[in-house]
Design goal:
One of its GO terms (molecular function) is serine-type endopeptidase activity. The chain is an alpha/beta fold and 647 residues long. Helices cover 18% and strands 30% of the residues. It has 13 helices and 31 strands. Helix 8 (354-366) packs parallel to helix 9 (381-392).
Length: 647
């Protein structure tokens, strides 16, 4: 029988404590002084259902929850609006591309693509209306019969009965202010359409309208979250208790994105050895898989010895077997767990010497550990040196930040290469006990989280000790998917892709000039995102700086743009990093932008003087472009040679 306990573990100390179109049809959604006006027959709402294989599938509107999309250049504006309205919202995410007429370096009739952002906001309509009115697209969330909440994207697709119906499709799209994007590359006769804030209905309603016209084979909205991934069949997950993996109790975005990450890699590689240096792991636990006998650092013998529950709990977050209807699910199931035990007293304090702790770390390194989890604190320079040696040998080292609610403990704070993990609660706030500071790298769920307990039982506990192994698990999965990555590359992926949650409470900023992402000293780079960390490509930071080095001549109406090689715009960098209308002598402007690897053009212009400079560059893993403006004469001569410096 499963036994449930509620345990809080202070961090092990030596003095340690082990630690759319926009609107759906409803009378309540009437915008005043807005371009988003929809006057339609109330008898033809086309909402609260969609068509699947000629069957009408009912859905239920989720009150007060909306998905919104907007141009990347408007991200700061929307963040401010959301904060002013005091709305609950998910971290801003990349969405993809949407079409609109090109206005630069292309014919006026051609189509170019622009980046969009997407987020989910929650609140009563009176508060959300100010945000929705300026969105590129918005739509409500709907709940399906299986309980999943689906977001309505701005896309829908239509299959023609014959290619002769294409003119009919174009006419109906024009009539409803819908953009016809084009034909699907693989599905013959299938065309994609996109809604904007000018469209008469959202994409779900529009798909229903097109299908019910009888003119097309089928029409369906593009739904976000309509699938029911075979993720975890554990009773605790279904009950909402494994909220760190998927949160359906409080805020739906406060979790580590576990289920979605399983679409990239469903099981870890046994070649990846994860060392758990702790109080010992119950290797016979029925819900653990691929656990080595381990080693006891106290007696220097095999196997490891269980001297407390803490180590088994840590192991559960990493290696518990999913989909066996028992206990919990580990993030890195399939990897090899190497337990290394030390001694503790009956209060959870470490009583092993620093030499013993050093031996434990050395054993992990010498026995092939690629990731080392350390959910403890130990004030010893010798231990700190052993950690540095593990880092020098290419190990990913993960430490819990500590449970005192103050400064980050030692040796977590001893080396910037360590991934330091804090804890959050179910609402996305820093757990009150979680240590924080400038050395904090990332956060993960750590309050009232379930894991394994010795003797085949399950327990609920709290502590940064249990946030850390979630990061350890993701690091192990990244190495399972991309075994050639270095430890620093694994750390970068985890930190760069973190979710910027609860930004209205914890504002994220660039802490230093060398920072590769925004952070906050209570949240680090944000909430662990296992799916994003496993993506085939991740963005790197590009910095573009313009310096006015002219002799007493202001640089008027300057602008900085980023383009693909076909001159389709990636981003107007001046808009997202607002600077000056004019750069006076000696002043400079710097824009930061996350960019996927590829080849691009950067362009700087001084519109008042009518001069511009373009630079083609190959972007791999970050870099900086510098434009220097030397103009001292009239007519203007303009720029020095722009320089791209890759990282």
């Amino acid at each position: 029988m499963t036994r449930f306990k509620n345990i809080f573990f202070p961090l092990l100390l030596l003095t340690i404590i082990v630690g759319g179109c926009t609107d759906f049809i409803s009378d309540e959604l009437n915008f005043e002084n807005s371009t988003i006006t929809r006057s339609v027959d109330s008898k033809m709402s086309y909402s609260d259902y969609y068509w699947l294989e000629k069957e009408k599938i009912p859905v239920q509107k989720v009150e007060g929850k909306y998905q919104i999309m907007y141009y990347a250049s408007d991200a700061n504006i929307f963040s401010e609006k959301i904060a002013r309205a005091n709305l609950e919202f998910e971290g801003i995410k990349e969405w993809g591309k949407c079409v609109y007429p090109s206005t630069k370096k292309a014919n006026s009739n051609t189509i170019k693509f622009t980046d969009l952002k997407v987020t989910t906001i929650q609140g009563d309509y009176n508060r959300v209306s100010s945000v929705l009115s300026d969105a590129f697209y918005w739509a409500p969330y709907y709940k399906m019969k299986n309980g999943n909440e689906i977001g309505i994207t701005n896309l829908f697709y239509v299959k023609l009965k014959s290619e002769t119906n294409l003119s009919i499709l174009k006419e109906l799209a024009k009539e409803n202010a819908v953009e016809l994007i084009g034909a699907d590359e693989f599905l013959q006769g299938c065309y994609y359409l996109a809604c904007t804030n000018l469209s008469k209905r959202n994409a779900l309603e529009m798909a229903n309208l097109f299908y019910e016209s009888g003119l097309f084979e089928f029409a369906s909205p593009s739904l976000s979250g309509a699938g029911n991934v075979d993720c975890i069949n554990e009773p605790l997950f279904e009950a909402g208790s494994l909220w760190h993996l998927g949160n359906n109790l409080t805020k739906s975005y406060v979790h580590v994105n576990y289920c979605k990450s399983r679409t990239i890699i469903s099981q870890g590689s046994s070649d990846v050895i994860v060392a758990i240096i702790d109080t010992g792991v119950d290797v016979s636990h029925r819900d653990l898989y691929n656990v080595l006998p381990g080693w006891d650092a106290v007696t220097q013998t095999t196997p490891n010895r269980v001297r407390g529950a803490h180590g088994t709990m840590v192991a559960g977050f990493i290696g518990a077997i999913p989909n066996n209807s028992q206990g919990v699910a580990g993030i890195a199931y399939g990897t090899t767990i190497l337990p290394i035990s030390f001694a503790v007293n009956n209060l959870g304090g470490i009583i092993s010497s620093d030499i013993t702790m050093t031996r434990a770390i050395e054993y992990a390194v010498n026995n092939g550990a690629k990731v080392i989890n350390c959910s403890w604190q130990y004030d010893s320079t010798l231990v700190g040196e052993a950690i540095k040696s593990a880092l020098d040998n290419g190990c990913v080292v993960v430490f819990a930040s500590g449970n005192g609610g103050g400064a980050i403990s030692y040796p977590a704070n001893s080396d910037s290469r360590i991934i330091v993990v804090g804890a959050i609660d179910q609402n996305g706030n820093r757990a009150s006990f979680s240590n924080y500071g400038n050395q904090l790298d990332i956060v993960a769920p750590g309050e009232n989280v379930y894991s394994l307990y010795p003797d085949n039982t399950t327990v609920m506990g709290s502590g940064t000790s249990f946030a850390a192994p979630q990061v350890t698990g993701v690091a192990a999965m990244v190495l399972s998917k991309y075994p050639a990555l270095t430890a620093s590359e694994v750390r970068y992926r985890i930190e760069k892709t973190a979710q910027k949650i609860t930004s209205s409470v914890y504002p994220y900023t660039f802490q230093t000039l060398a920072a590769f992402a925004t952070s906050n000293n209570q949240m680090g780079y944000g909430l662990l995102d296992s799916y994003a960390a496993l993506a085939p490509q991740i963005p790197y930071l590009l910095k573009i700086t313009i310096r006015n080095l002219s002799n007493h001549r202001p640089m008027g109406a300057f602008n900085v743009n980023l383009y693909n090689l076909d001159w389709s715009q990636v981003q107007d960098l001046t808009e997202i990093s607002p600077g000056y209308g004019t750069l006076f002598t000696g002043e400079e402007f710097t824009a930061r932008y996350d960019l996927l690897p590829g080849s691009y053009y950067a362009e700087a212009t001084a519109e008042m003087d009518g001069v511009e400079e373009d630079l083609k560059f190959d972007f791999v893993k970050g870099g900086e472009i510098t434009f220097e403006y030397f103009n001292t004469t009239y007519p203007p001569v303009g720029w020095g040679i722009p320089v791209y410096s890759p990282n």
